[in-house]
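B., you asked whether I could sanity-check this one before it goes into the benchmark set. Here's the sequence:
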Amino acid sequence: MKWERVWRSVVPAFAAATMLLSGCTTYVSTQVTAFSNWSGSDATRTYAFTRTAAQQNSIEQATYEQLVANELDAYAFRQVPSDSARYLVGLSYAIHGDTVTVTQPVFYGNPWAGPFWRPMSPWGPFGPFPPDYVTQSYPVFTHTLDIRITERASGKEVYNVTARNTDEEPSLVRAMPYLVRSALADFPLGNGTVRTVRIRYDKRGAVLANEVPVNPPDAAAAPRPASGASAAPK
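And here's what the prediction gave me:
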């Protein structure tokens, strides 16, 4: 019947939109992998940023460096000129787009009695019909940040941490505060650490405090932890 065809076309479209909206989360989950040979003390935590040729004179690079500097400050790092720094801090970052396709059943009931119901339906005129299936494709983006700390004098790598998350956010600059906070939470992590850090998400773009605080780092490693993140080992 005509009404049934209209209903069958409207309900799956509505269900698909609801599915996308319900996929929003109140947390940004980031996978963090760290390799560490860290032995620095608070007294020697002077650093300067180092850049590749492509990063020279980049406003984007300077913006991300400021985010990292704010987090390093929480762990007694002090930014100084390159020729007097003990450590050099290098950043690399990327964003990769992909498409995810999801097929889910959609259950609905006939809102009209009388001639607008399926006489063969075992559930009767008001019960749910057998499900239709809605296939929805939507873009997702993987954001990656790598922070590499080396000794300036020797060139020896002492810390390398990578943060990676995937969601519907197409902007790397909006994802970067969460990547930086997650990468440096509980600095320094042990060698070969792999874990997931969750940070509360605010639609206005602010990073809010989580209900579960970060596990405090070793007292010798830092005077105070960074806030706003919780971690679960994986």
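One thing to flag: The chain is about 20% helix and 35% strand. Otherwise nothing jumped out at me.
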